[in-house]
Amino acid sequence: MIKNLVITYIRIHYFFHRRGIIIKGLGYVQKLLKREFVFNAFGKKFYYNPGIEGSYDYLLIGRSNEPETQIFLDNTIARLDSANFIDVGASIGEFVFSVCNYSNVKRIFAFEPRPDCASVLRKNEELNGESKISIYENAVSDNVTEVVFFQNPGGTSSGLFKIAGEQKPNTGYKVKTVMLDFVLPIILDNPVILIDVEGAEPLVLKGATTFISTNRPLIIFEFNQTSKRHFSLEDIRNILGEGYEIWRLRGDGTLDMNFANSWNCVAIPQNSKFMEILGSSKVHLN
Fold first, then answer.
1. Does residue 269 carry a pLDDT above 90?
2. pTM for this structure?
3. Residue closest to 183 by CA, chosen among 273, 93, 116, 87
4. Per-residue pLDDT at 144 exceeds 50
5. If one looks up domain 66-282 in CATH, what number appears?
6. CA–CA distances in Å: residue 38 to residues 119, 124, 171, 175, 283
7. Element (H, E) at 147
8. Is the separation of the CB atoms in 152 and 133 below 8 Å?
9. Where are the domains of the chain?
10. Which residues contact 276 (CB under 8 A, 6 or more apart)?
């Protein structure tokens, strides 16, 4: 009974949210779900852990929490002969398992240092019998070391930097870091990298400079109010070099350059297959 009421409320919340009407209570309502269960989204099975309710939200009703990112990934990956997907900050695997639906995706590399989220990620892998996913319970940075990782219990905000403005106290624990240059294969066909690490995006890119120069991946990275406290787009341009163009990912899954109002941005390698399929018909200039 409680579960049905919670799901109904989430549907109502989603309905208003998609129309730009913000109502409160989503996090509180999810806390009413006290038991573990399995649900379906994107044609895949997901395990619900009530201790990290903030990692689910609209996924519980089969909807993406970042629909623009999902649309963009779908439109991009579907047009490639083959691809590989790297998710840095994979959480419970929303994008990992939606991308699994594409037979042209050969390998998926998921990085999630938070133990409770990584545990769910592994359970989801088992539930779906997926064999092309490699899971790393590490933070990704520009060196190999051990760092303090901060998290907000129950929520999704976690990273190498202390989380400002959280109502709950941050907790910190040590995790090992890896560099993408040392973990990923030397060569991958049409790699797509998604980075959501709460402001540490430049560190991830600095630790992947050889991989990036060799493979010319498409890179989706978070650039919102949290990110802007830690880096600028100029920092990203300096790391990637002149061979990349950076665009804002719009709410409809297309691209423009209105960086003042952004959530995710996309770095597209010039003279690449990605530039070809994301050409002028898919790009809106403001």
1. yes
2. 0.92
3. 87
4. yes
5. 3.40.50.150
6. 14, 9, 28, 29, 38
7. strand 146-151
8. no
9. 1-64, 66-282
10. none
